[in-house]
Amino acid sequence: MSTSLDGFDLVTPASLEEALGLLASDPAARPFAGGTDLMVQLEAGRLRAGRYVNLWDLAELRGITESPESVAVGALTTYTDIRNADVLAREYPLLVRAAEETGGTATQNRGTIGGNIANASPAADTPPALLVYDAELELRSTAGTRRVPYTAFHTAYKQMILAPGEIISRIRLPRRTGWLDYYRKVGPRRAQAISKVCFAGSIAMSGDTVADVRIALGSVAPFVVRAVQAESVLRGKSINDEAIAAAERALRSEVAPIDDLRSTAEYRLRVASNLLREFLSHSQ
Amino acid sequence: MPDRRSVRLTCTLNGRRLSLDAHPMARLLDVLRQQAGLTGTKEGCGEGECGACSVLLNGRLANSCLTPFAHADRATIVTIEGIASGDDLHAVQEAFLECGGAQCGICTPGIVLAAVDLLERTPHPTEHDVRAALAGNLCRCTGYMRIFDSVLEACRRLSASRA
């Protein structure tokens, strides 16, 4: 242990209500779930000291429930839980693929989907799938519950619209049929890698033309983004070389990859463009 | 020294119920090694990349370097010291000895636990299953081939003993 725990505390509430009360009473307090991100930051000396509220045992934040309109995934659902959920495999396969490609077994057993969203890494693997599926987040605090579209959640690097004392409680996925899904993560190694580029796409065809399409990417902007311009270029078009080239141009104009220790901006742009081409070629 | 925020938690560690005192955010890895005296669990990277610190927490593989002590409360924990039955090695341990699956040994406890976890869930894994199950465990000595051989050999031994 290289890190001093002076100034840190981790309190375990007995209920969600108590947890929300603890978060409301101390604006600096932060939620703590599986620890797969926060414990890394702690050991690296990068975690802010203060009070953390242990959500891990709160049954209210677990479980996957189905209604005719949507499938709701509790924020504490782990990657392993996602991999084992038949309804997700049937209807939201990109989410299952993303869970399979996040970390190794030990990380998948402890990392949670709510944590993956709230950690707000631009390289996170489940958010592109959530964007493609038009996910809506349910946010809870002592003030009540509100729902926000996931597209409006991240606002800048590591910034999001969570109010003080508010947590992500559930992720709601609208039910859908007739879409063809595509997911590909490009990293240095097939397993347990952090993405250089992560691409999720979903397309609904009407005969030869694109009725609707969703495209989302990780690791090409300060937060995980939907490529709305590339999407609008494609709607109503047939997929041919011209449409693919126009979509690639639109995509290149709306992402902003950077050079960092994992890759370069130029490589990321090229890979993002190639993945778009592969996605569309598969859909022809 | 337990600090002022130290908490006392009870868990079942390798089949024995016991109480431990530590800071709730202390790494389970450190509590196991320093308070429980179980030094078979190793620290490799300390950031969840290498799997050397793997333990079974409530029947699931977990990196103890990323597990806060608070999550050990009322938990069932199995470390490498709890895998053999007395002097009888587990089939996975025997297979690692036979096939040369261990070299320097730092990664071995974590890999043995990952393999035990795999074979409990998937009694007849393919080589692909073995590779996927061990993707979170890094070894810098063996080149992995003898580790994969060891796990598949352990699977044969377990199947033979069940037959």
Counted up, domains of chain B total 2
Count of discrete domains of chain A: 3
Secondary-structure element pattern of chain A, one letter each:
EHEHEEEHHHHHHEEEEEEEEEHHH
Main-sheet strand order of chain A equals 4-5-10-6-7
Provide mean pLDDT of chain B, rounded.
95
- The sequence of SSEs of chain B as H and E is EEHEEEHHHH
Mean pLDDT level of chain A: 95
Assign an overall shape of chain A. globular
Strand tally of chain A, please? Answer: 14
Question: How can the largest sheet of chain A be summarized?
Answer: 5 strands, antiparallel
User: What are the low-pLDDT stretches of chain B, counting only 5+ consecutive residues below 50?
Assistant: none
Shape of chain B: globular
- Radius of gyration of chain B using CA atoms only: 16 Å
The name of the CATH topology of the largest domain in chain B is Ubiquitin-like (UB roll)
Helicity range of chain A: 25-40%
Low-confidence stretches of chain A: none
CATH architecture classification of the largest domain in chain B = Roll
What is the CATH C level class of the largest domain in chain B, in words?
Alpha Beta
How would you summarize the topology of this molecule?
The complex is a heterodimer of chains A (284) and B (163).
Chain A: E1 8-11, H1 16-25, E2 30-32, H2 38-43, E3 50-54, E4 64-66, E5 70-74, H3 79-83, H4 86-91, H5 93-100, H6 105-110, H7 113-118, H8 126-132, E6 136-141, E7 144-149, E8 154-156, E9 159-160, E10 167-174, E11 180-186, E12 197-206, E13 209-218, E14 225-226, H9 228-234, H10 241-254, H11 265-283
Chain B: E1 7-13, E2 16-22, H1 28-35, E3 54-57, E4 60-63, E5 76-78, H2 91-99, H3 108-121, H4 127-133, H5 145-162
Parallel strand pairs in B: 1-5
Antiparallel strand pairs in B: 1-2, 3-4, 3-5
Helix pairs in contact in B: 2-5
Brief account:
Chain A is α+β, with helices and mostly antiparallel strands. Helices cover 33% and strands 26% of the residues of chain A. Chain B folds into two domains: 7-82, Ubiquitin-like (UB roll) (Roll), CATH 3.10.20; 91-162, [2Fe-2S]-binding domain (DNA polymerase, domain 1).
